[in-house]
Amino acid sequence: MVRGCLQHSKWYIRVVVWLGIMAMLTVPMLGFWFVATHDPQGVRAAKWLQFWQTLTVFILPALLAVYLWSERPREWLHLDRSITWGTALKAICMMVLAIPAINLMSWLNQQLVLPASLSGLEAWMKQMEDAAQVMTERFMQVDTVQGLLINIGLMAVLPAIGEELSFRGVVQGLLTPRYKKAAIWLAACIFSFIHFQFYGFVPRMLMGALFGYMLVWTGSLWVPIVMHMTNNAVAVLAYYVSNRYAIDGGWMEEFGAGSTWYAGVLSLVVVITMACFVARERS
Q1: What string of DSSP letters covers 112-128?
Q2: Closest CA to 191 of 215, 218, 221, 211
Q3: Within 10 A of 50 (CB to CB), how many other CB atoms are there?
Q4: CA angle 255-256-257, nearest 5°?
Q5: Cystine design at 54: which of 18, 158, 207, 249 (Cβ 3.0–4.6 Å)?
Q6: pTM of full prediction above 0.70
Q7: What's 241's DSSP letter?
Q8: How many helices and strands, by DSSP H and E, does the chain display?
Q9: Is-contact 62 169, C-beta < 8 A?
């Protein structure tokens, strides 16, 4: 009966249902994690938290909510259309080639300075960025293949599936029937905001918008999932190589920014061109 009612409900009712499921799953999970862990600040505990958060905040709520309001949940989420190996390879290449452009956008984003009246907010934002960077570095410090595979699963595979289900699947899907372009950009903005890394807001928003357009053009959520997974996996691999072989991986985060801005511009042109070809193929 509940499912039948939700299938004909307004979009904002569906949002409430989705967020309600999220709360019902997340609150008990956080309580259990807090009681069960002996070292909340430890890396092992942080990895378990990452796993359960991804599951209870992004993956399960999206799947359960869409199941309640759609007779064909896989079709609603655009999971019913598989992608070929060729399409997957194009998606991977696009994200690898986009690295200098992402670095350029990150560098430009970091040049933004808030007015003096907002100095307190700016200091808080920088503190958040520094804390996130410290945790990321602790999280990524592995030098074994097993540790690498665990990090790829926790930081690349699961987040790519969960965040794309939630933002491109649920948020963009709810608004697309009436506001296709607005849905893409709203989902991208929320996607970037929830990471709470404000000096990376612009590149992450643009990346989210690219994922959204790729979903519209290809009709398959698997395409942005593969792209998202590739972006995260490259970062995980860079940290692993840096730790395992004592190689400075900072150049990968800097290439395309600063004095190498021209590489970032070229990367941006290449990615936009590839995206235009995808759009033309599907039009």
Answers
A1: ----GGGHHHHHHHHHH
A2: 211
A3: 17
A4: 95
A5: 158
A6: yes
A7: H
A8: 16, 0
A9: yes
Enter the tokens of residue 104.
């350029």
Query: Residue 158 burial by CB count (10 A; 0-12/13-18/19+): exposed, middle or buried?
Result: buried
CA distances, 15 to each of 21, 170, 194, 213, 281 (Å): 10, 9, 16, 22, 33
Single-letter code of the amino acid located at 92: I
pLDDT tens-digit profile of 144-182? 899 999 999 999 999 999 999 999 999 999 988 778 889
* Number of other residues whose CB lies within 10 A of the CB of residue 238: 18
Question: What pLDDT score does 196 carry?
Answer: 78
Q: What pLDDT does 19 receive?
A: 94
pLDDT top residue among 137 and 257: 257
Within the chain, strands assigned E span: none
224 in Cβ contact with 83 (< 8 Å): no
Number of residues that this document lists for the chain: 283
